[in-house]
Amino acid sequence: MPQDPAGTTTPPLPARVRAFGAATAAGEALLLQICFVLASLPLVTVLPAAVALQRSLREVFVGHDRASAVRFGGHFVTALRQTWKIAVVQPAFALAAIVSAAFWASAGGVLSAVALSLLAAACGAATAAYLAFIAAAAILPPTARPRRCAFAAWALARRRPLRFAGAVVLSATWALLLARVPTLLLVGSGLVPAALAWWAAAPWLRASR
Questions:
Q1: pLDDT score for 9
Q2: Distance between CA 37 and CA 190 in Å, rounded?
């Protein structure tokens, strides 16, 4: 049974209170997910929306603040100003990867297999970089510049290579699931990558509290 600093025993929370807290946290996460979907509709704003979501989730689950669209909007505006130069790279890369995959898949032959393998490796590296970047952005001050976030992301990925490799595999599984059930985009397009980034960087994030 947990104890407070004074040494007295703290009784566990009733199950009803724990269930209410879990439901409240789920509702706040879904509110932030809706904000993410709306903010990322132009596609070129996916990266700043993901950064804003990660920072907002950290405030909710680590800082114990209440989620709000206004707070998410503030983080989104800040992230948009910081990352707009690199935000266009993500959708451009995704489009190029889709076109390349379709072309080489229809080509057939050994060269096609080699090209698809290289493309899969590039997509995996890009996914790991994306997850590491939003994880680093969540822990650094909101005023941190993209270069600082990029260096922090690189250091984080080097420290946790197996975790980020696992996160890439889980991201691929999530993408295959989305291909089967596209409506899941509405409830998990932002939360699933955010959760994977948090899982991959969990020890580093806990140490920075």
A1: 55
A2: 7
In the chain, domain spans: 15-207
* d(C-alpha 143, C-alpha 52), whole Å: 12
Residues paired with residue 3 on neighbouring β-strands, in sequence order: 9
Rounded CA-CA distance 49/57 in Å is 12
Give the CA radius of gyration of the chain: 19
| pLDDT digit string, tens, across residues 43-89 | 999 999 999 999 998 888 776 677 688 889 999 999 999 998 899 99
Burial of 78 (0-12, 13-18, 19+ CB in 10 A): middle
What is this structure's pTM?
0.84
Question: What is the rounded CA–CA span in Å between residue 83 and residue 12?
Answer: 44
Residue 14 has what DSSP assignment? Answer: P
- Residue 161: how many other CB atoms lie within 10 Å: 11
The token duo for 183 is 């409506």
Label residue 204 by pLDDT band (50, 70, 90).
low
Tokens of 128: 């790991």
- Residue 196 and residue 171 in contact, taking contact as beta carbons nearer than 8 Å: yes
CB crowding 52-75: b at 16 or more within 10 Å, else e: bbbbbbbbbeeeeeebbeebbeeb
